[in-house]
């Protein structure tokens, strides 16, 4: 079977500054993979290469055995930043319908387009919001609308850039549950700085820092994180708290473990 994503000895440079160097990567169909790494390490560049927005300096990128340009209709993409003028009176359904735009037909939506958009909204639990102004929604609801826009074309591969940015823990938990369900029928690739996300729902971790290495989530430990980010990190435990007597007692494990940079002590 052809993998969902394959990079064969891919390098990319902006002018003379190398960003990715001789990357060979395979993401099998049905995988749920997370792209992690430091700022400037090449995560966004990797996604743009997969989308076909950038051409590699050397090497080859294929999606389902085809070039990115040939496989564009099999890709659903949710960018990190959405350039929507909140003063513009666009409805939730209008935003989702953008996912049905094609190169051949850009300006007229059909009955099938509207049915597909409504079905996507039902999958993210926002059927009752279709006529609401997009600007009136909460941050978590906007994220789900943008996921619906990506799902509207019934993709085989879903790419998401920082989907948990600017959402509260409750919205984040709902998002994880939705993505786990969607993974039963599509390959998912998510860029995130939140390593707590990795330990809950992700099958493999793609570590990007000019070079690219793939690890199962079971191998994610302090040594590996140090190698990815190039410095010491301290784990922040959400499953313990200190009592008045000074010792730690267990609490509910409902929140994910996260990591944050911490300077090395002398």
From TrEMBL:
PROSITE patterns recorded: ABC_TRANSPORTER_1, ABC_TRANSPORTER_2
Coiled coil feature spans: none
Domain named ABC transporter: residues: 5-235
Gene Ontology MF terms: ATP binding; ATP hydrolysis activity
UniProt cross-references to InterPro entries, sorted A to Z: AAA+_ATPase, ABC_transporter-like_ATP-bd, ABC_transporter-like_CS, Metal_Ion_Import_ABC, P-loop_NTPase
Domain of life assignment: Bacteria
Keywords, alphabetical: ATP-binding, Nucleotide-binding, Transport
Keyword Transport: yes
The keyword Nucleotide-binding belongs to this UniProt entry's keyword annotation: yes
SMART domains in the record: AAA (SM00382)
Similarity comment: Belongs to the ABC transporter superfamily.
Name of this chain's protein: Zinc transport system ATP-binding protein
Origin species: Desulfoluna spongiiphila
């Amino acid at each position: 079977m052809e993998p969902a994503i394959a990079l064969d000895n891919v390098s990319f440079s902006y002018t003379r500054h190398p960003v990715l160097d001789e990357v060979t990567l395979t993401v099998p169909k049905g995988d749920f993979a997370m792209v992690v790494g430091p700022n400037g390490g090449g995560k966004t560049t990797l996604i743009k290469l997969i989308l076909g927005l950038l051409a590699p300096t050397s090497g080859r990128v294929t999606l389902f055995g085809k070039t990115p340009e040939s496989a564009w209709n099999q890709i659903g993409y949710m960018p990190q930043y959405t350039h929507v003028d909140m003063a513009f009176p666009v409805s939730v359904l209008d935003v989702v319908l953008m996912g049905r735009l094609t190169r051949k037909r850009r300006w007229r939506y059909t009955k099938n387009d509207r049915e597909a958009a409504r079905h996507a909204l039902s999958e993210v639990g926002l059927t009752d919001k279709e006529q609401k102004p997009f600007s009136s929604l909460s941050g978590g609801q906007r994220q789900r609308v943008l996921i619906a826009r990506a799902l509207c074309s019934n993709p085989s591969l879903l790419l998401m850039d920082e989907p948990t940015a600017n959402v509260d823990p409750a919205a984040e938990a709902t998002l994880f549950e939705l993505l786990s369900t969607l993974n039963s029928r599509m390959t998912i690739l998510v860029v995130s700085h939140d390593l707590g996300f990795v330990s809950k729902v992700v099958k493999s971790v793609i570590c990007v820092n000019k070079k690219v290495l793939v690890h199962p989530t079971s191998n994610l430990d302090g040594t590996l994180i140090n190698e990815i980010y190039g410095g010491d990190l301290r784990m922040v435990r959400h499953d313990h708290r200190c009592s008045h007597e000074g010792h730690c007692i267990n609490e509910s494990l409902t929140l994910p473990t996260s990591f944050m940079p911490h300077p090395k002590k002398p």
